[in-house]
């Protein structure tokens, strides 16, 4: 008799004087016939899922898709619940709760829809594309990325879809702008929600970098066709956008400690904005804009690091910001007036950090490493 078999468990409970159908006031194992060997003559075969079960799965899948794409689009708080929950959707916009068992069934449906479209001849040809089927495949990638944040094929399809809209010249109908805005929000929802792997997914962060570098004007809110050097609000728009992105990175850092992928995205974003800063010649010079933005970023990130003193990834990014040169982003600081300003800022950061350590008696390799590096470079 196997020590883990049903008959063994039943016998143990009988010897202990317990009713195998009632343990601790809860009815358990209501039908022992399901535990009999498959070759038993009295074994009753479980009914196979019929058309009703398939229709129910499709209906649930559509409910999940509707919850993820509900208008007006906003940042979602998505949580994957334990499998012990009933396989139903918990939705109170913008919060979404998906039991793991429900997510698995939706993933199977989404994968079937997605690859049925990719297996078509020339699925990316604008002339022969089935728009309805393509839209269904695009929506299916949401479920796929929710199940597997590093599904590169799904991410590449979302890239192709945005380029598909651009090539079809749908910007006049505002379709491209809506698609870029939705992509920003869904990526933010994935990397900031309390999910297991999404906050630290290199695929999702790389996709966000691609989105901003490919659709820069649409991403930060500029109206397509407006000359950037003629927009007096250009510097303020970019600064506000950078503040938002830093907030997203810091929240992702809280979701997953030592999130080097998120902070590396911030490095690339800062470099991208430094290159795009040549538009603001009418109101403020490029160097002045980068300096003010850099000081704002240093102050914000330093506060985050003091709240998370053991997270060395945040301290490493702060070291990167302090060591940047205004004239040539990515290189060491220069001498002169700007160098003196950087020196004063570094000394202020060191002083505040040391006071914080002394006040709260903090000990840790991360803070010590930061002070050592920043002191040597000062």
What is the fold's blueprint, element by element?
Elements: H1 6-15, E1 22-23, E2 26-27, H2 51-68, E3 77-81, E4 90-92, E5 95-99, H3 100-118, H4 131-147, H5 152-167, H6 175-192, H7 202-214, H8 216-220, H9 234-255, H10 260-276, H11 286-307, H12 312-322, H13 337-360, H14 365-377
Parallel strand pairs: 3-5
Antiparallel strand pairs: 1-2, 4-5
Helix pairs in contact: 2-3, 3-4, 4-5, 6-7, 7-10, 9-10, 9-11, 10-12, 11-12, 12-14, 13-14
Order of helices and strands: HEEHEEEHHHHHHHHHHHH
**Global mean pLDDT:** 79
How does the overall form come out from the CA principal axes?
globular
Helix segment tally:
14
Strand order, main sheet: write it out.
3-5-4
- By secondary-structure content and strand pairing, the structural class works out as mainly alpha
- Quick one: how many beta strands? 5
Helix content: 55-70%
State which percent range the strand residues make up.
under 5%
Rg from C-alpha positions?
28 Å
Query: Unreliable segments (pLDDT under 50, ≥5 consecutive)?
Result: 1-6, 12-50, 224-230, 326-331
N/C terminus separation: 74 Å
**Major β-sheet profile:** 3 strands, mixed
Which quaternary structure do these chains form? single chain
């Amino acid at each position: 008799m196997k020590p883990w078999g049903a008959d063994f468990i039943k016998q143990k409970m009988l010897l202990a004087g317990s009713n195998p159908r009632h343990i601790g006031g809860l009815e358990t194992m209501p039908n022992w016939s399901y535990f009999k060997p498959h070759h038993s003559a009295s074994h009753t075969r479980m009914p196979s899922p019929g058309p009703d079960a398939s229709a129910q799965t499709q209906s649930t899948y559509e409910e999940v898709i509707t919850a993820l794409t509900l208008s007006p689009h906003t940042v979602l708080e998505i949580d994957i619940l334990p499998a012990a929950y009933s396989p139903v959707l918990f939705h109170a916009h913008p919060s979404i709760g998906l039991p793991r068992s429900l997510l698995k069934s939706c993933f199977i449906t989404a994968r079937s829809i997605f690859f049925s479209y990719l297996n078509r001849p020339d699925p990316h040809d604008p002339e022969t594309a089935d728009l309805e089927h393509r839209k269904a495949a695009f929506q299916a990638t949401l479920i796929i990325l929710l199940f597997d944040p590093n599904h590169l094929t799904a991410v590449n399809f979302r890239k192709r879809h945005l380029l598909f809209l651009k090539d079809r010249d749908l910007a006049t109908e505002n379709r491209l702008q809506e698609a870029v805005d939705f992509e920003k929000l869904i990526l933010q929802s994935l990397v900031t929600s309390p999910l297991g792997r999404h906050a630290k997914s290199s695929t999702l962060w790389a996709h966000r970098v691609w989105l901003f570098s490919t659709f820069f004007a649409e991403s930060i809110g500029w109206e397509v066709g407006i000359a950037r050097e003629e927009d007096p609000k250009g510097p303020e728009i970019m600064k506000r956008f950078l503040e938002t992105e830093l907030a997203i990175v810091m929240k992702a850092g809280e979701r997953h400690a030592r999130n080097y992928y998120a902070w590396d995205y911030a490095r690339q974003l800062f470099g991208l904005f430094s290159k795009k800063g040549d538009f603001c010649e009418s109101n403020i010079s490029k160097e002045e804009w980068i300096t003010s933005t850099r000081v704002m970023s240093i102050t914000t990130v330093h506060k985050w690091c003091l709240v998370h003193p053991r997270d060395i990834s945040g301290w490493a990014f702060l070291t990167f910001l302090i060591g940047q040169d205004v004239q040539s982003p990515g290189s060491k600081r220069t001498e002169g007036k700007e160098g003196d300003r950087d020196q004063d800022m570094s000394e202020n950061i060191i002083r505040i950090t040391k006071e914080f350590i002394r006040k709260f008696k903090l000990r840790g390799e991360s803070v010590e490493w930061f002070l050592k590096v920043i002191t040597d470079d000062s």
